[in-house]
Amino acid sequence: MLLIITLLFTSIANGQSDVEQKTKKRRGSDNMTLGLAKSSDKETGNFGLLKSVGWNLLSGWVSGGINFGIIKNEILAMGNISFNIPLKRVEPFVTAGYGIVIERFSLVNNYGAGIRVLLGKHVGIVTEYRKLNFKYKDKQKNTTSTVTVDYIGAGIFYYF
């Protein structure tokens, strides 16, 4: 019985060290997704393109990064924190962040989740969902409005 328990613990420890070694080799990831952006406002454009670069902070479990994108005809720059589950071939993640809409210099926040599936040694596919909240200030009417956008996209990623 003691031998079985010892073998069980060593196999768990070896599995964890494999994951730790794999994530230590990775310094971060580079994602590019293309998708649909839906909102309840009357603005045209349901297109979304999001570029994300993240650097591993805690053995691949936590990463911090920057996002650039075009969502509903708005150009965005955001900083995000992601919590990842670094498994062998798949990596589910949740993310949240804050930034600005560059053209209007207004605030935007976002949160969401996704999954990365490794197809090669460093390359794979990614799908993600983001909920974005834009704050617009109309200086002519002296009003502030908030628009909520649902973005769902798919694309490719690269571990570096």
Q: Could you walk me through the main structural features you see in this protein, from its secondary elements to its overall organization?
A:
With 160 residues, the chain is an alpha+beta fold. The protein has a single domain (2-159), classed as Porin. Helix content is 15%, strand content 63%. Strands 1-2-3-4-5-6-7-8 form an 8-stranded antiparallel beta barrel. A hairpin with a 4-residue loop joins strand 7 and strand 8. The protein is elongated. The protein starts with a helix and ends with a strand.
Which short descriptors sum up this protein?
8-stranded antiparallel barrel, single chain, alpha+beta, Porin, 160 residues
Topology:
Layout: H1 2-25, E1 28-39, E2 47-56, E3 62-71, E4 74-84, E5 90-101, E6 106-118, E7 123-138, E8 143-159
Antiparallel strand pairs: 1-2, 1-8, 2-3, 3-4, 4-5, 5-6, 6-7, 7-8
Largest sheet: 8 strands, antiparallel, barrel
Could you give the order of the helices and strands?
Answer: HEEEEEEEE
Task: Return the CATH topology.
Answer: Porin
Query: Quick one: overall form?
Result: elongated
Tell me the number of helical segments per DSSP (H or I, 4 or more residues long). Answer: 1
Q: Would you identify the CATH architecture?
A: Beta Barrel
**Low confidence ranges:** 5-9, 16-21
Number of domains: 1
Termini separation: 43 Å
Tally of strands: 8
Radius of gyration: 19 Å
DSSP strand content: over 45%
**Major beta sheet, strand line-up:** 1-2-3-4-5-6-7-8
Overall pLDDT, averaged? 85
How helical, in percent, are the residues? 10-25%
Query: By helix and strand content, what is the structural category?
Result: alpha+beta
The top-level CATH class is: Mainly Beta
